[in-house]
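Two entries, shown back to back:
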Amino acid sequence: MAAREHRPPGGGPGLTTAAGDANHAGMGPRREARAGAPSSSEVRWIDSHAHLAGEEFDADREDVLARVSAAGGLGVVCIGESLAAAARARLVAEAHPGFVWWTAGIHPHDAADYDPASDPVRLRSALAAGAVAVGECGLDYHYDHSPRPQQRRAFADQLAIARETGRPVVVHTREAEADTMAMVTEAGAVGIRGVLHCFTGSHALAEAGLAAGWHVSFSGIITFRKWADEALLRLVPDDRLLVESDSPYLAPVPMRGKRNEPAWCRHTLLRLAETRGADPAALGATVTANTRRLFALDQRVPPTRPED
């Protein structure tokens, strides 16, 4: 199944967040980095969502990972938004055990090509090989690259596989709040856990996810000048909060206009801490613990190749 170009969810009022528009000139800096910010040795975190296996990082992936450590990062969850991307993500993770983990899923953009006979088999195989989550999957009614019934079918099947395997789900949603809310609520009722990634949705959707036992993850979008929903950043309880880069997309202030990379999650974390009135180091420790717990990172030991 050939994957379409990944597009971040984004889509809040007045926000332009598609991959090709992530650095639109109208999205100028909200603020510059403040003097006296905590050092990287004080603030630690895990990037819960990065497309690190993409070709955008082929030339300097090792340098990118080195910069994660230098900035205080403790690891990266490398997203497999298609089965082909998951295979590449697996290679990156296996080259960096204990620092990079990988996921496997079928993005809503690719649901038009979803094969309910063969794709679930391949997805289960990826999870057995060590993928820590199902996804990126979900619903995208903004681009509508795939018919909506097929998006819902692919998403429902992946939720079922998550329940079967005990893995969490990484969910993309854009302009599909009613259906996302219904499916996440139903999933939570049967014990499926997950994260609403790169969240820019309504308070009602966030609250539905939280009520279902899910997490909410924020990206560099919250540093943009046009971000206005400070209350949303305070709504999510400490124990359900994640941070992500969604790199190579959505570079945060003060890195706007550049290819995003996981090291810059630090800027998102500092922005969250400022808005929530939290100590950055303490909040970093919290989101790190949340990421480890949701994805069971300390329990996932990838099998060796001969056992696949």
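entry 2 starts here
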Amino acid sequence: MKPKQYFRLALNSPVEGDETEYFNLKKRCAGYIFTKTQNDMVGASCFYEVDVTNLWNEFQQYKKEADFNLSFNVIMMKALIEGLKAAPRLNAHLEFNKRSTTGKLIIKKHIDISMPVKLENGETFTIKVRETENKNLKSLQAQVDFLLRAVKNSDIDRLLLNNLSYRMTGFVLKGKILTSFMQFFTGFFGKNKVMNISDLFKKKKLQKKATLVPQDVNEGTVCFTNWGMLNSEFTTANIGYAPLLYPQVFLYGIGTVSDREYAFRNEKGEVDIGIKKIMPVHFTFDHRIGALDDVMPLIKKIDEVFENPQIIREW
């Protein structure tokens, strides 16, 4: 065996015909967050299905009466917000030092919801719905609609670059100078670069349309996701595990509402067949904040919405 072949085998290097795809800026940012989650977070997950027949019917009726275009996704987002008020320790960031085994849970004043959306090129990108704790359904829907319009008009890479500059500055202030330098260098030089360094000095074009600002794409306090919206062909799959978004400690996910047949006894005592609206629900929490007891106040609060759907008219 020739030395070149030996070292290529030893390094498990690509061979002729292999295709190499380098991460773009969005994938690099997501990779950093998920790697931090994998290394530093202790996630516990739960999946279950909910009968949302009454809530769905109430939503359809209220949608006809409301003077704005209400979505079921925003209904569930509002339910999560109310649940977080009952379980504020889930609306938090967690910091833990593995060397000293010291840690702290920073319970956030505002409920800033990270919400993954699908871009026109098929990639997934997370936006932040800010300060939702006191918003009613109409203002919450207006904010979500604005963000969905703005993401189409925004230079996502430029936004992420701005946020990366904040993060690299934070690394320097924490003494992680080498980490900051490596992220900067690989971002603008070599095979892994995501843009030319001259792009840093280009003036930003004035946009007449709504666009995102850096505060719309940095870390939220909790994640809400609807995997049915992210992929219309992914309607029947059940998510077994969804990772947290570091440094958040809670994620709440829902799937597509679907019809399901069920057997019941009618007024005559005869067995009959009916249709229910079933929605899959998934949540993940960091086990270091406590146990399932810390999550149950939120689950009970959201269950109240399923059992008494008329409450959405008070939102």
